[in-house]
Amino acid sequence: MAEAYIVDAVRSPVGTRKGKLADVHPADLGAHALTALMERTGVDPGAVEDVLMGCVTQLGPQAGVIGRTAWLSAGLPEHVPGTTINRACGSSQQALHFAAQAIMSGTQDLVVAAGVENMAIVPIDANAAVLERMGTRREGAKWIERYGEQEISQFRGAQLIAEKWGITRERMEEFAVESHRRAAVATDEGRFTGQIAPLNHLSHDEGIRPNVDLEKMASLPPLREGYALTAAVSSQVSVGSAAMLIASEEAMKAHDLEPIAKVSTMAVVGEDPVLMLTGPIPATRSVLKKAGLTIDDIDLFECNEAFAPVVLAWAEETGASLERTNVNGGAIAMGHPLGATGAVLATKLVHELRRTGGTRGLQTMCEGGGQSNATIIERC
């Protein structure tokens, strides 16, 4: 089977709901990452065979096949097609999987995997509001027959995980403080400089709080009465984009490219849709089994911090070291721009492997519907 190489990976800064990127049209936001990728790699954009872009809430300015409109908005060749992928929060990680699979199968030689989401313009619950106006609901009769009328939501899922694994509010808050601390250190040390393409005079991730106060955090109200979850232990509403160029060995020779990493092994799983966010546990086990590796063979982990209990339960069940997980902070500090996050995490991972000289990184994230992708990336 052919190898799928990552030539380069670049991202926008991750902006906040009311920050410097809040008014950037999603297609322009996606175009920014695509333009930066083409400039950095120096590849002829006309040689790209497809653009796969993750985006979750495909409504309004994020509808209309944003993978295509972002490419065209960037002024790139019209003959290059594009599409949009939705596997909830794992959308752009799935874009990476599809791109790698196209290369490995020999079907294509040069593919862009990307992601975009502007949650300031298109809120996470925008589709639900449309359904309500239409007088309908997301769940059909057969779903209700199987799962009943119980609430299915990420917030309830995260709370159920905290209860099932006995994760206290105090433990979650300590984890959140550490996420901000790591992200602040990484920013101060310039670890993100080589992976961020500045936009709107913003060159750093806006949500990081270098001096977050644990006492103040402890005074915040829960997201719901009776919950241990608060906004402080949850990912932020965010704006961002990222893009990666995936190539075959033949394409690298033809275009004189040098890879920084390769996609080694991939897995995707389904899990309990009520708990919803436990997918990273079986996904990690699955991808390690496929690769013939153990958890100790992995140098760095990126497990998306949708909520603190997701990562804490995952680490407990898989044996993954928290010291080697989200070493430069995670979504609690830096934000979670839904459809872009998979590509953002992959970008962070490949650049950190390169910086530290690590051999293997494993990326995983919880996804709507009780799903999860897991990817093992090897530094070249």
Automatic annotation (TrEMBL):
Active site: 89, 336, 366
Gene3D superfamilies, per database record: 3.40.47.10
One annotated GO molecular function: acetyl-CoA C-acetyltransferase activity
InterPro entries, sorted: Thiolase, Thiolase-like, Thiolase_C, Thiolase_CS, Thiolase_N
Thiolase C-terminal domain ranges (all copies): 258-379
UniProt xrefs under Pfam families: Thiolase_C, Thiolase_N
Keyword Nucleotide-binding: no
UniProt keyword list: Acyltransferase, Transferase
Domain Thiolase N-terminal: 5-250
Record flagged with keyword rRNA-binding: no
Enzyme Commission number, as recorded: 2.3.1.9
Family: Belongs to the thiolase-like superfamily. Thiolase family.
NCBIfam families named among the record's database cross-references: AcCoA-C-Actrans, PRK07801.1
Protein name in the entry: Acetyl-CoA C-acetyltransferase
Organism whose genome encodes this protein: Actinomycetospora corticicola
